[in-house]
Design brief:
Chain lengths: 137, 282
């Protein structure tokens, strides 16, 4: 990490958000302002099948490979996740969709994205998700 | 660069004789730069006496507020230069979603809390939100970041030549983070304190007290030491002494902190509990 990056560190909003989602049970992940996944918790790891310590930071391209996907598991590039709304429009959003879970299985999840906007502007987003009882929206 | 301590207490000023050696005024540290521009870190009750010494001085004054909790601003009303029509004072403070800095401070400097309205201060006073990019105060470079404390709270890093001072008076970096092993970019304030010649850091609580005050935005002694060691700070002055800790209690805390500092590779002489009326040259 460069000296400037180390000096700046993570925005406080993301530090506090990571502290929170690291100890709650609902699956959650955290993105930076660019949409890279910079942390996800054990609840998310159970659904995804890999712990954050194994994957590390996930870029948008890497996250796109996880979802949304069709019932057959094919990527649905024209569909926007609530995270996209949070990143582009800085407002909360909710939807239901399929993602690729543990062992590549297709899992239908409800997902809510909350933009983190502090005194210094947009810092990133928290996304929570849980298995849906219904099919994709 | 020289740092002089005018107030080292947190929460509320105290006047007990048993606390006189470390002092009873709340947070205020004067930073003297080589070009004689005055930098004042926080405006707790300690700023009153500082203002008396500064009164009538020609140099512009910069007050860098970390946050607007009362113990860090309660001295503003009694700061003599603010009542000098010839004085130029810039008050820097944290960003907030609750409006301009001047308006936020006016909640204190206005009726019914104050007999003086902020708009009536005789000095030439400017209120500015400290930018996230580095800015200059006199010959010094000032950097600030939001840090882990309740409400928008800044830490400051002041660099003049080769000397670096870092001021983190209200700070709880260990909340949810293992200071020894957590990734550096996730530790609040670490970049500000990196390799500082002098780190002035929150050390309000004993380990026992911290079990009851976790999440209040202040540090246990051990966490403050661990943070300083992780940051590579050369000298550590523990600050924001609890109003219930008399001089004897602070002496015991110093002994405990020093032992931990030495274990972390620090030098005995480079750790102190900040005391009003003392100064440190960088």
């Amino acid at each position: 990490m460069g000296a400037e990056a180390e000096f700046r560190g993570m925005p406080l909003e993301l530090i506090l958000a990571r502290n929170l989602i690291s100890i709650i049970s609902i699956a959650a992940f955290l993105t930076d302002a660019d949409g890279d996944v910079i942390f996800y918790n054990d609840g998310a790891a159970q659904i995804l099948g890999q712990r954050f310590e194994e994957t590390g930071r996930l870029t948008r391209d890497q996250w796109d490979a996880i979802g949304p996907v069709t019932d057959a598991g094919e990527p649905m590039r024209e569909v926007h996740l609530p995270l996209t709304t949070a990143l582009r429009e800085n407002r909360p959003a909710h939807d239901r969709c399929n993602i690729r879970g543990d062992h590549g299985d297709v899992v239908c999840v409800e997902t809510s994205a909350l933009p983190l906007i502090g005194p210094e502007g947009f810092a990133g987003a928290i996304v929570v998700f849980w298995p849906s009882r219904d099919g994709p929206g | 660069m020289r740092a002089e301590f005018w107030g080292v207490r947190g929460s509320i000023p105290v006047a007990d004789r048993a606390m006189a050696r470390h002092g009873g005024n709340t947070a205020c540290v004067q930073v003297e730069l080589e070009d004689h521009v005055s930098v004042v870190l926080d405006a707790g009750s300690g700023i009153r006496a500082l203002g008396q010494r500064m009164a009538g001085g020609p140099a512009p004054i910069h007050i860098l507020l970390t946050h607007l909790h009362l113990d860090h601003i309660n001295g503003l009303l009694f700061f003599a230069p603010l009542f000098d029509p010839g004085a130029e004072v810039t008050v820097w403070g944290p960003p907030s979603l609750r409006g301009p800095l001047r308006r936020r401070l006016a909640r204190y400097l206005s009726a019914p809390l104050s007999p003086v309205e902020i708009r009536d201060l005789p000095a030439k006073v400017r209120f500015r939100v400290a930018p996230s990019e580095p800015f200059r105060v006199g010959g010094a470079r000032v950097q600030c970041r939001l840090v882990n404390h309740r409400g928008p709270t800044l830490g400051y890093r002041i660099t003049e030549g080769d000397s670096v001072l870092c001021y983190l008076p209200d700070h709880e970096p260990a909340l949810g983070q293992p200071l020894h092993s957590g990734p550096a970019e996730w530790i609040s304030g670490l970049g500000l304190a990196r390799d500082a010649d002098l780190l002035i850091h929150d050390g309000q609580y004993t380990e026992d007290e911290y079990r009851l005050t976790r999440g209040w935005g202040h540090s246990a002694l051990g966490d403050a030491v661990d943070f300083a060691a992780r940051a590579g700070s050369r000298r550590l002055h523990l600050f924001h002494h609890d109003p219930s800790h008399d001089d004897a209690a602070l002496d015991l805390m110093r002994i405990e902190a020093t032992e931990r500092w030495i274990e972390a590779g620090g030098d005995r002489a480079s750790l102190a509990l900040a005391a009003e009326g003392t100064s440190v040259g960088l």
